[in-house]
């Protein structure tokens, strides 16, 4: 593949990719069979706590990322909006039977999940964008110190109509219909106070054959993630802390990065396997570093200082150099694949919804992204949408609501 080929391809398809991003992923229809297994309700994950679910929670199979512009007219209306989102998320993640509205009123639920709402491992993570802190609601002095409109890096092709937003809902569950149901029910309850800006659906593939799930380039994605069971590590890498320069209310929240990245899979699939593995720095079949034999082995860069085995600009080497100085630059990734069908030119539109949680946006995500500039993999990917957000601290109990401390 030549650079000219890639540029010609991008120029031909750029006009339609934004529409695909707004529409979300177009998953293939499941094969029809004569027998259907009975659905299970799935587990209910605790809604209340210091932190929101959907951050340390193991990634569920299905997700939707919905960015919204707030149309509420006052700070009081914004508070009512956040209370309503909290109430609906609390019910949907717990499950139960919607109330009967009577004969003449519309149903209180869409019925997508049947007569009873099942929890199905549902999480609804609410995050705020930089634009919420403009002059509309008197929140300028409450803005998280590092929150801003998403940066455009050298290899990006951002389309601002599918970037940023006042709010972000990250809705995840074990099944696709549960996610769809939750998005609809929250939209129904908040109509008139917020409007969808962009939406991207995603899915996590099952591990094949084992270990970390794969992305749509065929490689395991997220092997080097820090362990979420280590509370001390999460305190260093994920959870924000109030105190200068941060406002006090941010404690328990996290900087939430979403990047929608198209993978130019039709070009990627024509690259020989050796070159693919060299660009990534891992074996495609096992996920092992090229210097090792198992997925989670340390690549031991110190034994390959000149990049004879894992080239110096390989993705894994730039993303995580594994030095003492870069230890606290790691971030917690929670990525999803997306499949948007075809663009208007008949090219496959698919890729990655990159998701990461950070204690410090600049120290972690931005530093790593700058290090990745110009990597060989950049010829096969096109970041075009997403944004920077701040995941709100959790609702502590049944009387609390998401965003209360921000608006106090």
Brief overview, please?
With 408 residues, the chain is of the alpha+beta class. It has helices at residues 3-23, 75-94, 176-190, 231-237, 265-268, 273-280, 315-319, 362-372, 404-407, and strands spanning 62-70, 123-129, 167-173, 194-203, 254-263, 332-333, 336-342, 348-358, 381-391. Strands 1, 2, 3, 4, 5, 6, 7, 8 and 9 form a nine-stranded antiparallel β-sheet that branches.
Outline the structure in words.
The chain has 408 residues and is of the alpha+beta class. The protein contains 9 helices and 9 strands. The protein has helices at residues 3-23, 75-94, 176-190, 231-237, 265-268, 273-280, 315-319, 362-372, 404-407, and strands at residues 62-70, 123-129, 167-173, 194-203, 254-263, 332-333, 336-342, 348-358, 381-391. Strands 1, 2, 3, 4, 5, 6, 7, 8 and 9 form a 9-stranded antiparallel sheet that branches. Helix 2 packs antiparallel against helix 3. The model is unreliable at 15-34 (pLDDT under 50).
């Amino acid at each position: 593949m030549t650079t000219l080929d890639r540029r010609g391809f991008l120029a031909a398809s750029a006009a339609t990719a934004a529409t695909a991003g707004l529409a979300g992923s177009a998953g293939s229809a499941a094969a029809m069979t004569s027998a259907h297994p009975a659905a299970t309700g799935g587990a209910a994950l605790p809604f209340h706590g210091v932190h929101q679910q959907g951050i340390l929670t193991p990634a569920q199979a299905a997700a939707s990322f919905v960015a919204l512009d707030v149309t509420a007219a006052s700070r009081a209306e914004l508070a009512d909006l956040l209370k309503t989102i909290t109430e609906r998320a609390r019910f949907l993640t717990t499950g139960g039977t919607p109330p009967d509205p009577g004969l003449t009123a519309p149903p209180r639920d869409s019925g997508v999940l049947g007569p009873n709402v099942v929890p199905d491992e549902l999480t609804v993570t609410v995050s705020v964008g930089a634009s919420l802190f403009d002059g509309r609601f008197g929140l300028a002095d409450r803005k998280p110190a590092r929150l801003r409109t998403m940066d455009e890096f050298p290899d990006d092709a951002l389309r601002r109509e599918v970037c940023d937003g006042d709010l972000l809902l990250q809705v995840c569950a074990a099944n696709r219909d549960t996610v769809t149901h939750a998005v609809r029910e929250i939209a129904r309850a908040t109509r008139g106070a917020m409007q969808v800006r962009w939406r991207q659906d995603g899915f996590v593939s099952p591990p094949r054959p084992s270990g970390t799930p794969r992305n749509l380039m065929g490689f395991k994605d997220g092997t080097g993630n820090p362990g979420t069971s280590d509370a001390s590590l999460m305190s260093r890498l994920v959870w924000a802390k109030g105190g200068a320069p941060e406002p006090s209310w941010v404690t328990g929240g996290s900087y939430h990065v979403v990047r929608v990245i198209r993978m130019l899979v039709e070009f990627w699939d024509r690259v020989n396997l050796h070159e693919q593995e060299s660009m990534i720095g891992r074996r495609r079949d096992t996920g092992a570093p090229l210097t090792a034999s198992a997925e989670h082995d340390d690549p031991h860069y110190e034994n390959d200082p000149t990049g004879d085995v894992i080239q110096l600009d390989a993705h894994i080497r730039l993303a995580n150099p594994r030095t003492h100085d870069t230890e606290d630059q790691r971030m917690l990734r929670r990525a999803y694949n997306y499949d948007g069908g075809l663009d208007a030119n008949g090219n496959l539109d698919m890729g990655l919804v990159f998701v990461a949680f950070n204690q410090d946006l600049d120290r972690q995500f931005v530093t790593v992204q700058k290090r990745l500039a110009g990597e060989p993999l950049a010829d096969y990917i096109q970041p075009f949408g997403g944004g920077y957000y701040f995941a709100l601290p959790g609702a502590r109990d049944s009387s609390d609501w998401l965003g209360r401390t921000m608006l106090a």
